[in-house]
Structure formats: structure tokens, C-alpha cells
Design brief:
alpha/beta; 2 domains; six-stranded parallel beta sheet
Length: 286
């Protein structure tokens, strides 16, 4: 199995200090833990990871679930391979890579990752950017194309488009020829959305922003909605869809009551998206 040595990390100071490899208790207090470094036929030895993004939703969900301690959070990391397991052929020592998951946790001086969760990192990206690629961009691609079957010329509305998955969705959708609409809650967020591919952006804090979207689409609706908060937006989403439209649920923080008849009138669909149900031949192969 394989270590990442993390340098120049971008981490909450309460979680990780630079001098020692640590795991994190549920309350955020650090605990020193040891990491055995063993080779394994299904693992890559990874080291010298330069960046780890702050807590992802997955990490937050795990911590809220009170994991067995000691526990080291963090799944998305980027760095240089230190060594590989006996049967790993796709990578070699010195390769620049990023991961979509680790065995040992990413908030540490070293990390271990299975070879099928490791991907080459383009020379055009630095390690900070590489550590932010996996979950946001793979989720966006899966939601748009593998589950949403998006096509060039269709329209997509991205709720919460200034977040990680939102930005990734805007960039990918625009590059693939979709008409991209986004929402954000601040002027800064709206500008970020426009800079990352959206044709039009709306402030979801405004009471009449739904009406503005309807007006912009000339009451024809949008083909796809990427939804981060269906517990708030789903009922309104069904009103915004075009005939045959799809709401792609990529996050949720609670229940909501909807009228199923709204799906009947347009033969629309509500589709859940989970990156971690993807097969290697699916999301992990573009």
C-alpha cells in the first residue's frame, strides 16, 4: 500500500498540523495515529501529495455519523507516486496523479489509495487544482450524461452553481454545447458562475427568481436541472422543466412534499445520482 506525503496543505488548522500524521475525532480535535505502509497487489504507493481540499460533503457526512476512531478523513488528494504495488502496471514512481478515494485517509502526511481510484494529473493543473477534480467533476459528468443523458443544444439549470459540483457542471455543460443557466446567492457567486460557463445566472435569494427563469426560457422550461437542495427546490423544479425534462438529485438535506401530478403533465423524471454506485467502466472511464 502507498503513502502520500502532504506538503503545503490547505486544511482547517483545527484538523491537521503540519508536523505529524493525524486522524480527526468527531469533535474536530486531533489524534495522533500510526500508518502502516505495506505493499498490496491492488494498491498504488502514493506520496508527496501537495494539496487536500477542505472537508467535502462525503467527509462531513462520515463525521456526523461518528466513525470508529481513530479515523482519518479525506478522499480527494493529488501528488506524486512514491511506489506501486506488485501488480500495478498503469502507474510508476514519479507520476503526477489525483485520487477519488483513499484507503488510509487524505488528511495526513501519507495516504494509501487503490490503483483503480488513481488517475493521471495533467501537467496543466497544479496539485491544488488536482485535489479538487475528482468528486466534483466526476459527479457533474455522471449527472449530466450518464444519468441525465444530456445532449448538445439542450438547456440545463444548475442550482447552487457557485459550489464545487456546480462550477464543474457549468464548465462541462458549456464545453459540450448545452445552454447553461445557474443560480447563486451573492453577487460574487453569480460572477463566479458566469466566469465558469453559464450563459445566464439568477439570484436564488430573490423572491421572484423562479418567475425570472420562466421568463428567460419563454415559458418553455429547461431540459435538465442539477439539484443540490431538493428539500427546498424540488416542487418548484417540476414547474420549471420542459416536457420530458429531468431533475438530477445530487445532494439533499431533508424531506419535501411534492405533487406527483406535476411529473405526469410533462412526463418528467426525478433521478437520484450517486457517484459511488458507478462502476469502473462507467464514471471512471470517460
Amino acid at each position: 500500500m502507498v503513502p502520500f506525503q502532504i506538503k503545503h496543505r490547505v486544511l482547517p488548522i483545527s484538523l491537521v498540523r503540519r508536523e505529524q500524521r493525524r486522524s480527526v475525532a468527531v469533535d474536530g480535535s486531533p489524534r495522533i495515529t500510526r500508518c502502516r505502509l505495506e505493499q498490496d497487489r491492488c494498491a498504488s504507493r502514493l506520496s508527496n501529495a501537495r494539496e487536500v481540499p477542505p472537508g467535502s460533503p462525503k467527509t462531513v457526512y462520515v463525521l456526523l455519523g461518528k466513525p470508529t476512531l481513530p479515523y482519518t478523513p479525506g478522499s480527494d488528494v493529488a501528488g506524486v507516486i512514491e511506489g506501486v504495488g506488485e501488480h500495478v502496471t498503469a502507474f510508476k514512481k514519479g507520476d503526477r496523479v489525483f485520487t477519488i478515494g483513499t484507503i488510509s485517509g487524505g488528511y495526513a502526511d501519507y495516504a494509501v489509495a487503490a490503483a483503480n481510484k488513481v488517475f493521471p494529473l495533467s501537467d496543466k493543473l497544479d496539485f491544488k487544482q488536482g485535489a479538487a477534480v475528482a468528486i466534483p467533476y466526476f459527479t457533474a459528468y455522471r449527472a449530466l450524461f450518464q444519468k441525465g443523458h444530456a445532449k448538445a443544444g439542450e438547456s440545463v439549470l444548475v442550482h447552487g452553481a457557485s459550489g464545487g459540483v456546480g462550477i464543474a457542471t457549468c464548465q462541462i455543460a458549456r464545453a459540450c454545447g448545452l445552454k447553461v443557466l445557474g443560480t447563486a446567492g451573492t453577487e460574487e457567486g453569480m460572477n463566479i458562475v458566469l466566469r465558469n460557463g453559464a450563459h445566464q445566472v439568477f439570484n436564488h435569494r430573490e423572491a421572484n427568481y423562479i418567475d425570472k427563469i420562466k421568463e428567460y426560457t419563454k415559458m418553455e422550461g429547461v431540459d435538465i436541472i442539477i439539484e443540490m437542495l431538493p428539500n427546498i427546490n424540488l416542487a418548484a423544479d417540476l414547474q420549471l422543466l420542459s416536457c420530458g425534462g429531468r431533475v438530477m438529485v445530487v445532494g439533499c438535506r431533508g424531506p419535501i412534499e411534492i405533487n406527483p401530478r406535476d411529473t405526469m403533465t410533462k412526463e418528467s423524471s426525478i433521478i437520484g445520482v450517486s457517484l459511488f454506485l458507478a462502476t469502473e467502466a462507467g464514471t471512471f472511464s470517460f
